[in-house]
Amino acid sequence: DLIKQWDEGEKALITYAGDAFTIAPLTTDGHSILNQIPQISPDIMPVTGSHADLALEKGISLLENSGYAKGQIVFFTDGIDQATSEKIINRLKGTPWTVSILGFGTEQGSAITMPDGSLLKNSQNEIVVPTLDQTPLRAIARAGNGIYLTVTTDNSDIQKLSKYFNVHNLHKKKAG
Nearest-5° angle of CA 74, CA 76, CA 80? Predict the structure, then answer.
């Protein structure tokens, strides 16, 4: 829904677990990103984990390599642990990168059902029940001069993110 709201500018799609992977490089063609989304699931990730800091680095690299002097990065996440949050906050200090977060989940948590009907398990074969700890997510958004929202069923979250991004447009470096 967010990609459909962004009618201008370049967008990319990065997934992360134990490492970060570019699914779609920066492009003005939102449809090419939308076509990739149905194939994304935890079972396609070659390395388990939750290294949002690596995803941030990948996003910054994509922007810098495309000549952007500043840029918007948004995380869609069910949580970022405190240690990773601190890495991200330290990385963002004094940079032009704006980071916003859309949090998924509840404080109580819920198991994740895989496409085959089984429940997502960690490397110790324990069922993963992610909970949403909003404190580190809010801290990252503050440090990144972005906004933090939790997912809604009425699309108001997407509208707020889209409006925020439209106000803070990307700019390429001036030539020369």
Answer: 100
